[in-house]
Design goal:
single chain; alpha+beta; FAD/NAD(P)-binding domain; D-Amino Acid Oxidase, Chain A, domain 2; 3 domains; 10-stranded mixed beta sheet; 8-stranded mixed beta sheet; 38% helix; 21% strand; binds flavin-adenine dinucleotide; oxidoreductase activity; oxidoreductase; FAD/NAD-bd_sf
């Protein structure tokens, strides 16, 4: 078996295994458990922890090492919802069903929040609040969204006017914003490590460097083949994301791998606080940028997505230029670290959570919003196995859809570039319109002034009986191609 392709990492490995503290052996002996989880990312660890807490014996098989995949790359932003715009979800499954899914995502946030305390995960560095900013002048759309999120789905949200957004983020690139005061951020890597430690304490056995090579479904107890041993389990959870491979090629084919690069800048000093006064995470509505301040004066920033793996080092320049375009006042920004991870994007944009066939479960396709959604997947699947709870069926409408293979990747990359360009062009136009609006306002003010000068001059003329063909210079200017006087 060819091991899954490695996540490209530049510089010091941001998720180097702490082998001294966490010596996870390979599986070298045959083992019998209630539940076998394939993949030790956020999804696999979440299911394993929940299932062990419910009393099951659990083994996790990890082809590389814990957090090797996308989970070791996150920016640590925990938001409500899924990767699909809420309006699209409502259109597809209706308001009531969307509302139930939305509530689940908030339950996922609460699970993460309860786990990630300074006591349980020292150094987790919690910050609160998230700002979703628009690259274009939204106006009515913003009000609609606020109504849906706040009134219909009971989410704590606040609409910010342009001035307030720009007061916090000193760039003219952004217009309105939606503030999520209950969203929060944490150190993503520490969270994965913390989850791993919690799972271990709950009795989960984690085997690293142990790829699952295939599954034999015959018999009540299924058998999972690994290079050196076999494992038997009543239930199996496929949580291998885009690298799952042989255990279920069909499932792997439903995910479009999207590589996302991230950078951590060198300390930027006080100039950063002058540019960005918001302490939580910032993302634009087009999904172009997602960033936040960490460690007081550094930026953590995710860059563009590609459907083919690109060394993160090669994307550093692009991200630097993006930072400079938004915040030129920061001057030259040095990058301390860059890395990337492959997220699994489904065709419908929703995660794959549920039972595929008796005893075979899936937890994958979490896209860009994996922290809260993997937490809820863990809970739903564990409760489904242990108690027969059927809440996972809320994800039934989102079936496994083939992602298009290699052609899908090429098309996906094209769409991503086009969407990115479209978003940037829309932003450019919006800023142009804004500048045009300012120019027009100044013109109006000049006109008002000219008109009032004309009026007062007219009054004066009436009093002094001036000749009719003499006019105020300002009023003449106003007649030269400017709109008529505003009364
Ligand atoms: C740069 C970046 C920033 C992000 N920021 C955020 C953020 O701020 N907030 C947020 O919510 N989400 C974020 N995400 C998304 C989030 O990271 C993912 O949704 C989430 O980590 C997916 O977790 P997973 O467990 O499904 O997959 P992975 O983390 O990819 O885990 C899958 C694991 O399965 C293993 N595996 C695969 N096949 C096998 C096999 N056959 N046998 C054994 N093991 C196998 C792999 O080695 C891997 O370790 C970000 C992603 C990236 C890339």
């Amino acid at each position: 078996m060819t091991p899954p392709a490695t996540s490209a990492t530049n510089g010091p490995d941001p998720f180097a295994p702490d082998t001294a503290a966490n010596p996870h052996a390979r599986l070298t002996f045959d083992l019998d458990v209630d539940l076998c989880v394939i993949g030790a990312g956020l999804a696999g660890l979440s299911v394993a922890l929940e299932a062990a807490q419910q009393g099951l014996s659990v083994a996790v098989l990890e082809a590389r090492r814990v957090g090797w995949g996308a989970s070791g790359a996150t920016l640590g932003s925990v938001m409500p919802g899924y990767g699909v715009p809420i309006g699209d979800l409502i259109e597809r499954i209706g308001v009531a069903h969307t509302g139930e899914l939305w509530t689940l995502s908030r339950e996922g946030m609460a699970i993460v929040r309860a786990r990630a305390t300074e006591e349980t995960m020292p150094g987790i560095a919690l910050t609160t609040g998230a700002l979703e900013v628009s690259n274009v002048d939204l106006g009515d759309r913003l009000i609609d969204r606020l109504q849906t999120l706040g009134v219909d789905f009971g989410t704590a949200v606040e609409g910010w006017q342009i001035e307030r957004v720009r007061d916090m983020l000193r760039t003219n690139r952004y217009f309105h914003g939606i503030h999520f005061p209950d969203a929060f951020q944490l150190d993503g890597r520490r969270y994965v490590r913390g989850l791993e430690a919690m799972a271990r304490r709950a009795g989960v056995r984690i085997f690293e460097d142990t790829p699952a090579l295939g599954i034999d479904f015959s018999g009540i107890r299924k058998r999972v083949a690994t290079p050196n041993a076999r494992l038997r389990a009543s239930d199996i959870v496929l949580a291998g994301n885009v690298d799952l491979g042989a255990p279920s090629p069909r499932l792997t084919a439903t995910l479009l791998p999207m590589w996302r690069a991230a950078v951590l800048t060198e300390p930027l000093g006080e100039r950063l606080a002058d540019a960005i006064a918001f302490a939580g995470s910032i993302a634009d509505t087009d999904g172009v940028d997602h960033y936040r301040i960490v460690g007081g004066d550094r930026l953590l920033w995710t860059g563009p997505e590609t459907t083919f793996e690109v060394a993160p080092k090669r994307l550093e320049g692009l991200i630097r230029r993006r930072i400079a375009a938004l915040y030129p006042q920061l001057g030259a920004v040095a990058i301390a670290q860059s890395w990337s991870g492959a997220i699994g994007q489904t065709v419908h944009g929703m995660p794959q959570i549920g039972e595929l066939r008796r005893g075979l479960w899936v937890a994958s396709g979490f896209g860009r919003q994996g922290l809260a959604t993997t937490a809820i997947a863990g809970r739903l699947i564990a409760q489904g196995i242990v108690h027969g709870d059927q809440r996972w069926r809320l994800f039934d409408p989102f079936e496994l859809v083939w992602a298009g293979g290699r052609i899908g990747r090429v098309v996906g990359q094209g769409v991503s570039i086009v969407e990115r360009r479209a978003a940037m062009t829309a932003g450019l136009l919006a800023r142009y319109r804004e500048r045009a609006a300012v120019r027009s306002r100044l013109r109006e003010e000049r006109l008002q002034a000219a008109n009032s000068r004309v009026r007062s001059a007219g009054g004066q003329r009436r009093a002094d009986a001036p000749p009719r063909d003499r006019a105020e210079p300002g009023a003449q200017d106003a007649r030269r191609g400017e709109p008529g006087p505003i009364e």
